[in-house]
UniProtKB/TrEMBL annotation:
PROSITE patterns, sorted: TYR_RECOMBINASE
Taxonomic lineage: Bacteria, Pseudomonadati, Pseudomonadota, Alphaproteobacteria, Sphingomonadales
Domain (Tyr recombinase) ranges: 224-399
PANTHER family according to UniProt: PROPHAGE INTEGRASE (PTHR30629), PROPHAGE INTEGRASE INTS-RELATED (PTHR30629:SF2)
Protein name: Phage integrase
Species, as recorded: Sphingopyxis fribergensis
One of the protein's GO biological processes: DNA integration
Length: 422
């Protein structure tokens, strides 16, 4: 049995075994140690014998997330419970048995934000994804399922939750403000079910629950979003933008709407665009993180004109800054909705502008592979990784952007003529 005073130096020096586990036990506190597996992960533990004479071992926390000093203090507390006749392992097991959905979701958010839960490609889950998870948890999952015991959940329970969300049971009444509100529907219902199922899967993987109680629950089918703007609608949107530029809309919001239509970027990508990412001479934006990880994305001259024309604010990294505070502008969806009402266009979201860009590229004769690269979709092959940096993609983006800009500006000019005639 390896013994040493546990401190950062001795724990750092503990080597991972080829197989199984290795332990290093503290010489000052009996029963306090650190465990290392073949992967190299080091976890603080306590080991003791309960009143029944059974050896128990309980995890304290992971080294790196927790310091040796913090683990030592927790070990003292837990071993103190043992001395008074308590059994921390049994207490932990009892807590897990009686865990409800709200408590499990809280555990997930804390662990995931600390980087201790891994998502796609075995990487910590991104903040943007966690923010969406948290929104679904607070808006839909906890109001409908929060008090339910996790161990008693059934497939029927979570599918009923999904149906309640789809039929508007968690819909919120209008608040009178300009922000969005939960409205339900099959899409958000399916995503909420997916979030809950993923949390249950992580809880099982981490040993919080013994089994995934609702494995096999089916998500509602949703219609693929195919809405795009026709050429006539692009001109109508341009006309609405032209009228709005006279003073009824925030110019930053209007610039983002134009950028979305001329680039096919995702709403979050355009809103949070930073100046240091943009290379006007090279015709690309170096996104450090997107839905498909870091990417170089082509940007056409018409969109570059909009980006470089935005006034700079000292100390602000964003191309499209918020009116208040230090963050980026985030209300482009509301602006787009008002523009579309003014133009008499229905069913348009920021994703519609992205789909319009891709569809226009298809009409101009560009291949599906090239269009996927233009839109920044996750690469599927070595060939596609190459296409992402091909000059042909820059040409395709420029031609598509020019074509959309032509029809957009036709509408803007018509708005100007109507103003002049009036």
């Amino acid at each position: 049995m390896a013994l040493a005073k546990l401190n950062k130096r001795t724990v750092d020096a503990l080597a991972a075994p080829a197989t199984g586990q290795a332990f290093l036990w503290d010489t000052e506190i009996k029963g306090f140690g650190v465990r290392v597996g073949a992967t190299g992960t080091k976890t603080f533990v306590i080991q003791y014998m309960n009143e029944e004479g059974r050896v128990r071992r309980v995890k304290i926390g992971r080294f790196g997330v927790m310091t040796v000093e913090q683990a030592r203090e927790l070990a003292k507390i837990q071993l103190g419970k043992v001395a008074s006749g308590e059994d921390p392992a049994e207490e932990s097991r009892r807590v897990r048995k009686d865990l409800n959905v709200a408590e499990m979701c809280e555990w997930y958010l804390v662990e995931a934000r600390a980087g201790r839960i891994l998502g796609r490609k075995n990487r910590p889950i991104k903040d943007t994804s966690l923010n969406m998870d948290e929104s679904r948890i607070l808006t839909h999952i906890i109001p409908l399922m929060g008090k339910r015991l996790v161990r008693k959940l059934t497939i029927a329970d979570v599918e009923a939750m999904q149906n309640d969300i789809a039929t508007g049971q968690t819909r919120k009444p209008p608040s009178g403000g300009r922000g969005g509100r939960p409205t339900g529907g099959a899409g958000v219902a399916g995503r909420s079910l997916g979030t809950l199922q993923a949390i249950l899967g992580h809880a099982k993987h981490k040993g919080l629950i013994a089994e995934h109680p609702t494995k096999g629950a089916k998500k509602l089918a949703t219609k693929k979003r195919t809405r795009r703007l026709s050429i006539a609608e692009i001109e109508l949107l341009g006309r609405a933008i032209g009228r709005a530029e006279l003073g009824s809309e925030n110019p930053v919001a209007l610039a983002i709407v134009r950028t979305l239509l001329l680039t096919g970027y995702r709403r979050e990508e355009a809103q949070a665009l930073q100046r240091q990412w943009v290379n006007p001479m090279g015709g690309y934006v170096a996104f450090p993180d997107t839905k498909s990880d870091a990417q170089f994305r082509a940007i056409g001259p018409e969109a570059i004109k909009i980006v470089v024309a935005q006034p700079e604010i000292a100390g602000c990294p964003y191309v499209f800054p918020a009116s208040n505070g230090e963050g980026p502008f985030t209300a482009v969806s509301d602006c787009l909705a008002r523009l579309c009402r003014s133009a008499g266009i229905e069913g348009v979201t920021p994703h519609t502008l992205r789909h319009t860009f891709g569809s226009m590229a298809g009409e101009l004769g560009f291949s599906e592979l090239t269009i996927r690269a233009m839109l920044g979709h996750a690469s599927q092959s070595v060939t596609q990784d190459y296409v992402h940096i091909d000059e042909a993609v820059k040409l395709a983006v420029s031609r598509t952007s020019d074509e959309i800009a032509k029809h957009l500006e036709t509408g803007v000019r018509k708005a100007a003529k109507m103003k002049f005639a009036a």
